[in-house]
Amino acid sequence: MKSILSKIYLVYVFFWVLFFFLLLYPLFWYYLSDEKRYTKAHKLRVLWGRLLLITCLTRKKIYFEEPFDKNKLYVIIANHSSFLDIATLAVALPVDFNYIAKIELARIPVFGIFFRTIDIAVDRKSPIQSAKAYMRANLQLKNKVKSIVIFPEGGIKKQAPKLSPFKEGAFKMAIENKVYILPVSMPDNHKRLYSENNGASPGMMRVYIHKPIDTSNMKVEQVKELTNEVFHIINSKL
Length: 238
Fold this sequence. Notes:
The chain is α/β, with parallel strands linked by helices and 238 residues long. The chain has helices spanning 2-32, 38-55, 85-92, 127-142, 169-176, 189-192, 223-235; strands at residues 58-64, 74-78, 97-102, 120-122, 147-150, 180-185, 203-209.
């Protein structure tokens, strides 16, 4: 019975994901057709996330370890365990940002418009394309355009919420550009919507926004140390 209810809820969730996205798509298309309007496109994505999370009967609780400074630039590092992670972070983080994620998201009909415009798609099978994505993100931080969200596990893993080893690229990027690292833990998202076993259920979604880590005095040689530190910070709430 529980399995049947879970599958019904899964269909319910994906219906609203698609409904709200198609409803707002004309505005998304307009805002994403010009780079000058990308900030408004992100605000619209926040609205989409709010509508989705409310309709899907989730309750979010956001915990800040310290008052949030909207004026800082961040490389935002989060665990990745659910298709709801993108909507959750859009709603939880009061700062303009875009995502770096696998190129498969750019190939999704309609939804892929984000990863062909405002977001950065990474083709990990191609060293050349991966390098281009890294250079684009690096330039964005260097020019202080906006913050970036990266899932350093490289995708949603089977053993969620247990963390997979973090890739070091995001941490190197932060150190090179003297940008704050902002660790974020989402311990409940895999219970709300999880890809591997099609599990889904309404309920609580906690988001822990940890204290930012200043990289201004760090050297590239400290990348591994920083990666391990952030891994343990995020893991402490999972």
